């Protein structure tokens, strides 16, 4: 396994770990506090959690078109195509949490199936706003994880404003020590 594929596995682990921390902290809030407009890009904690999920579904459905035919992504193909980037997929927090956990398992299994050759592919996909894109597959995967990190940072801020501490969030905590 190359350093690149090991790093992707690390990013999937980080994604799952941080989503768990976010949902654990957010789960202590009332439905009203979750939906409160805090001035974020997607207004609220609930809106931002939903946006991350929308982004994940859109990207995973695109990644499923890779010629490697990743069967690990099949569960995502059964989900409805999001209609907008600010779509609220789930108002019910328990349902959102269950969907998030399912997606994180799918992401980890999929990432573990990727090999170096797969990363050399140019992925062709349609933008949500229309128009065809042709992008480096590895670059898109890095964008996929960076998008999550960006918006989880916003959620961390909103949780802090609500008086909650999600604890340490640094990727370095998951990078193994070397001999």
CATH class: Mainly Alpha
DSSP summary, beta strand count: 2
- Total helix count? 7
Q: Give, in order, the helices and strands.
A: HHHHHHEEH
Structural class designation: mainly alpha
Spatial shape: globular
Strand content: 5-15%
From the 3D coordinates, which CATH architecture would you assign? Up-down Bundle
Question: Span from first to last CA?
Answer: 18 Å
Any idea what the radius of gyration is? 16 Å
How many separate domains make up the residues? 1
**Mean pLDDT value:** 96
| CATH fold-level label | Four Helix Bundle (Hemerythrin (Met), subunit A)
Helical proportion?
55-70%
CATH superfamily: dinb family like domain
List low-pLDDT spans. none
Largest sheet composition: 2 strands, antiparallel
Neighbour order of strands in the largest sheet: 1-2
What this model shows, in words?
The chain has a two-stranded antiparallel ribbon. The protein contains seven helices and two strands. 57% of the residues lie in helices and 6% in strands. It has a single domain (3-173), classed as Four Helix Bundle (Hemerythrin (Met), subunit A), CATH 1.20.120.450. It is globular and about 45 Å long. The chain is mainly alpha-helical.
List keywords for this structure.
7 helices, mainly alpha, 179 residues, two-stranded antiparallel ribbon
Compile the SSE list and pairings.
Blueprint: H1 3-26, H2 31-35, H3 45-63, H4 74-77, H5 93-113, H6 116-119, E1 122-126, E2 132-136, H7 137-161
Antiparallel strand pairs: 1-2
Helix pairs in contact: 1-5, 1-7, 3-5, 3-7
Please outline what is shown here.
With 179 residues, the protein is mainly alpha-helical. It has seven helices and two strands, in the order H-H-H-H-H-H-E-E-H.
């Amino acid at each position: 396994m190359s350093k690149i594929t090991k790093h992707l596995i690390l990013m999937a682990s980080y994604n799952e770990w941080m989503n768990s921390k976010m949902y654990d902290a957010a789960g202590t809030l009332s439905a009203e506090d979750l939906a409160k407009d805090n001035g974020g890009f997607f207004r609220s904690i609930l809106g931002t959690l939903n946006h991350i999920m929308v982004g994940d579904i859109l990207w995973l459905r695109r990644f499923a078109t890779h010629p490697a035919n990743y069967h690990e992504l099949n569960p995502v193909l059964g989900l409805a195509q999001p209609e907008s980037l600010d779509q609220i997929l789930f108002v019910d927090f328990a349902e959102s949490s269950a969907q998030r956990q399912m997606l994180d398992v799918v992401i980890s299994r999929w990432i573990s199936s990727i090999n170096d050759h797969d990363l050399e592919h140019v992925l062709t996909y349609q933008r949500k706003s229309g128009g065809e894109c042709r992008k480096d597959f590895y670059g898109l995967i890095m964008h996929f994880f960076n998008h999550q990190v960006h918006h989880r940072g916003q959620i961390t801020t909103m949780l802090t404003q609500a008086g909650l501490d999600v604890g340490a969030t640094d990727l370095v905590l998951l990078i193994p020590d070397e001999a």
